[in-house]
Amino acid sequence: MPNLKKTQEEKELTGTARKDRVGADSVQINPLETLPEPPAYLNKTGRKAWKKYTKVLQTEQLLVETDLDSLGLYCMHLQIAEEAAEELKKGVVRECRDEDGRIYYAETPPLLKIYNEASTQAMKWASQFGFTPVSRKNIPAVKKKPTESKLQQLMGKRGDGSGTVFKIA
């Protein structure tokens, strides 16, 4: 499997950034600092999902203004799937039985189709945001530059500045 492409920020943190390799296609994202309000079209179930996932994305500094509409669609599909599942629990399957009690006709409820479509769409959106195990592997983690300890700072200041304490003659 090929290595994932590093972002410009990751290259700068690791010290491998070069000006001649900065592409015109690199987009700088500005993560949102405050949690946005859920869209009006979401009900209680959708709003709960909205709050949960915006918090997750904001914590990882991945929540961007341009993604809010897509995140709203994801939450709406979760909402639709959950509502359809609740209705399906009530047992709305229609069966026709013959005199011996054998089923000769069973109707698939339309809610099952709605549930399946909403679940499929929700999974597609979930993979776009890294909410599935496989898609999470494709999101590069923001790597923090390691900070030097006090001892490392002191050792770096000794001698000729190379960080070596002893010189070999």
Automatic annotation (TrEMBL):
Biased composition (Basic and acidic residues): 1-23
Superkingdom: Bacteria
Ranges where the record places region Disordered: 1-25
NCBIfam families with a match to the protein in the record: sm_term_P27 (TIGR01558)
Protein name per the record: Phage terminase, small subunit, putative, P27 family
